[in-house]
């Protein structure tokens, strides 16, 4: 929206009244052109880059505050104004929404359910101190003095309905004005800049509140949803964001915000690294950095030159002084960000929020390398966790888990770097062959995305090889932006049915097997009933099957699906239109329903058992319920050990034996979340204001639409059949229940007995017997290999006399009674012994060609020679310049004359 339009002006007109009442006047900034409000005339709006920082060494507040003092002050101030303090939400937004991975602001907590009017807010009005994560400025962190990947957003919110107005624009402005005065900030220093905000599908006018050159808060008035165009929403929402780190910074007047927020951490890192601080340089750097964002190498150089010129020192000297401190600042920020991520259940991986956590973690390691900080990342994380745990007790609870993940990820990164160096060298060689001397940004991003190779490493290797690298200073920001958004995939075709919702009898009468209904519509080869007992496919549970009986004729129901609360029953006939309007009897395949029901409840129990054994970082990443076997995918940072699998299985069966009553009830979404928390959404985001809660008391609770047993004892025996790593950070458990579990155990018992019979031993001593046989086999194998080497040497002796000299090349071509591997060994020995061209084949018409460096220099290359032979005599093969393998359709002796002629011709 054009900020100068009349419509934009109308959005602000009510606020103007409050600002005018406070004595503020409207001006236009001569630098950026934005309209702003100030008590006194001024030419610029009060925000960087229009204004420099004026608070460094000159705080506008009446006293210095640390971050946590400000947090308490902020919450208590708004509590006195009638707001209820609510606890922070996890930083993992995917717990309750499916469009983003991480919480980027306090309003994210209430999107989309509260902001769309579907669910009531947890309180109204409310105030929250919300850790938020944004990686869109990750490359600026440490450099500008003000950017964070993780920051604390103080948000006070009011959700206004037409019939119930809590408060709106005037009160929001007044609260902000009063809070700043509480801190001792003079109203003359405060400017309110008119702006526009969009995020999370919502939009509205806003005010950016600035003091002495820095934005401290944003006051947003959400009135619309953005869906290609602005549309009114049922609520009018006050959405404020107070940057509590910036408030702490301004109140202390330190050179950077990091000095104000992480003083203990920074002091410890300075002691460890021996980095000294020149406060004069830092202050000047911060003042000028406040006027720009670092997006490119040229931006950074501009900043360095400006500071260096002002201080009358060289850019190189400034870099040497400022660089280490910027790295320390960034490590301070990144370790806090990573602590919140891991504490709230993010598992580093190559997808989604796990990718972002790994990006932050690996960037910390690179920054540590630049500081020559030769210690495990685990030790640095311990410092940050110890500090944060004092203010966030939940972090202390995950202390060991965080350190275990960090330790494992650092080892993985070390292996990635080792492999990455080889990959980069291959790329460099390929560039040189093509006479190119630059690695483009696209390749750098691909290397980081697919191989985990950091761009700094690529640049280091390329510098030695004379290859340039296109590496912008905002590289990690570009990568993060590609992974921060999460788009929901639309599944299947869109179906528009103008029919009433189907009455769901399977919830009302879960034990019924038959029912009577009426066919009220059709779609393709499916019919729609006014009510049904058939459970539709959903939540990883396949649909019911069975029959519909119409006028005595049976139609098989092969699949059931749900579209906008309408149930479609797919029949084994195409002529369904003729059935509309008729009465039917439905018959459920009860045996199938029971098996699926047992498997579904068993999934809940296994998940709860895994969380109990492995830790509450475990979340369901997927599930598929079956008849004979099912699977459960869980987030976990490493492979499951045999001992862990046994413990999970044992605990799951303990829950079964306790025969616990499974409670199923419909609840108001807000009440359910308040009672149980986001653990409800283990199976994914559930839409609607009412959710179906399935609780196994003391074991598990989830919002779930599936069918479930009445008591856990109805499930029967649970057996984990196998586990596998299906993707980075996700373990799959395949399991069976009841009779299928017994069948699985008996099957493996049969395998055990058959194996014991083969060895003619009792099953209990089978492992010992297998070990003995294996060790003997290895001994025999080694002896066979030794004998093969002896035979190869003898064969070499027999054909050494057959070496020919063609021009100045030593050539040997022979057919041997040998395997392909033996042919390669013999050929290799000849090359080592000074032969230039070796062609060996066997009776199976397999062929090996090896050539010396001398042959290659003369233009005789193994892969090209193999191609000529196969083109002439049929077959196929390939390889490299020095070695090629293949097979031909002719006997080896038949091709020798051809081979000798080519060598003679090409070696002249």
From TrEMBL:
- Entry cofactor note text? Binds 1 zinc ion per subunit.
Where can this protein be found?
Cytoplasm
- GO-annotated cellular components: cytoplasm
Q: Which GO terms describe its biological process?
A: alanyl-tRNA aminoacylation
Could you confirm whether the keyword Protein biosynthesis appears in this record?
A: yes
Binding, Zn(2+)? 600, 604, 704, 708
State the superkingdom: Archaea
Boundaries of every Alanyl-transfer RNA synthetases family profile domain copy: 65-747
Q: Which residues form a coiled coil?
A: 770-826
- Which comment does the entry carry about domains? Consists of three domains; the N-terminal catalytic domain, the editing domain and the C-terminal C-Ala domain. The editing domain removes incorrectly charged amino acids, while the C-Ala domain, along with tRNA(Ala), serves as a bridge to cooperatively bring together the editing and aminoacylation centers thus stimulating deacylation of misacylated tRNAs.
User: HAMAP family annotated for this entry?
Assistant: Ala_tRNA_synth_A
Q: What is this protein called?
A: Alanine--tRNA ligase
Organism listed in the record: Methanothermus fervidus (strain ATCC 43054 / DSM 2088 / JCM 10308 / V24 S)
